[in-house]
Amino acid sequence: MPYIKIEVTREGVTREQKQDLIKGVTDLITRVLNKDPQLTHVVIQEIELDDWGYAGEQVSVLREKGITAEKK
Amino acid sequence: MPYIKIEVTREGVTREQKQDLIKGVTDLITRVLNKDPQLTHVVIQEIELDDWGYAGEQVSVLREKGITAEKK
Amino acid sequence: MPYIKIEVTREGVTREQKQDLIKGVTDLITRVLNKDPQLTHVVIQEIELDDWGYAGEQVSVLREKGITAEKK
Amino acid sequence: MPYIKIEVTREGVTREQKQDLIKGVTDLITRVLNKDPQLTHVVIQEIELDDWGYAGEQVSVLREKGITAEKK
Amino acid sequence: MPYIKIEVTREGVTREQKQDLIKGVTDLITRVLNKDPQLTHVVIQEIELDDWGYAGEQVSVLREKGITAEKK
Amino acid sequence: MPYIKIEVTREGVTREQKQDLIKGVTDLITRVLNKDPQLTHVVIQEIELDDWGYAGEQVSVLREKGITAEKK
């Protein structure tokens, strides 16, 4: 009976990326824990840049300064 | 001091249904646990169909295939 | 596809009370939203009294002062 | 590795107030727990007045009755 | 800045399985969203069988009846 | 009607530190948003080191390697 919540900043996540996340997490849970996918729910929640804080600063401010969350 | 979060897919839940959920959950908590309703908070969060995954698929895709979550 | 999280202070909630909460919430969701119970998950999380704060005070401290959360 | 979620009713919280909350919570965590701010994430979630229930009533209804959540 | 919460029933999940979940989810987020793993936090929460309800019944009761969540 | 959840790793947080967090967050919310403290609930959730993942690794493994979350 797994439930997974994914919180990410709202920065242009596409419908296809969301489907990849849902499929990927469900497959992972099935493979690692042998859980029935019919019992696995995944919820994605996009958070506005003003509403996420990191190291004491709003992500919207960090982005204005040119600081991204991208993998280098 | 109960706090209850209800997550449902965003599919036309009306203001009256939300009030019924809030009233119903609060009454249930009061009846079963004898808690003061003044200390009970209920939060409803509607989730877009692209953002909820079930059995590895987006609910928006399931709905396009005609699969609903309705009680049979 | 509802998911419901119930957070309450850990103060002797019995197995039967938990079953009543689970049954009651699921029935409520089914009745108000016409959702398939097979798609409804309820999670109860008990919180230690030191870990819940209300009005700026730990509930453990409030209880020591004789302040309860019971319905009057 | 702290993660903090702040849920408030959506009633005109400004960008500056959000920044104050993010900064204030991060500073508090750093001061009390000596945590690296680079590992502290804060997420603010605003909840519509129809979606928050208190004492069994929607906050939107409470507001229509003139009942606020303001500090007296 | 992703944050992922995984809730599963407490049924003998090993340390190695938890590591596989953490590694797998972080890799997935990195691959699909191109996020810096240094900004990705994953939290696993195990839920007692009395505290998870499915279709209106406690999972502990379902297990006593021989109903599992295993993939067929 | 604010509700705040604080998730931290379980690494010897004392009762006094928890009280400081509860008091500090409640005061912050009252000061920034002018909310009645009687409507503010704070929940602290401590997470085992095996259950928190950062950058794809369990925090318990990071700690064994001598990597802490302390402010430098």
From TrEMBL, chains A, B, C, D, E, F:
The active site is at residue 2. This is Tautomerase. One of its GO terms (molecular function) is isomerase activity. Belongs to the 4-oxalocrotonate tautomerase family. SUPFAM superfamilies: Tautomerase/MIF. InterPro entries: 4-OT, 4-OT-like_dom, Tautomerase/MIF_sf. Its EC number is 5.3.2.-. Keywords: Isomerase. The keyword Isomerase applies. Pfam families: Tautomerase (PF01361). It is an enzyme of class 5 (isomerase). Residues 2-60 form the 4-oxalocrotonate tautomerase-like domain. It comes from the Bacteria.
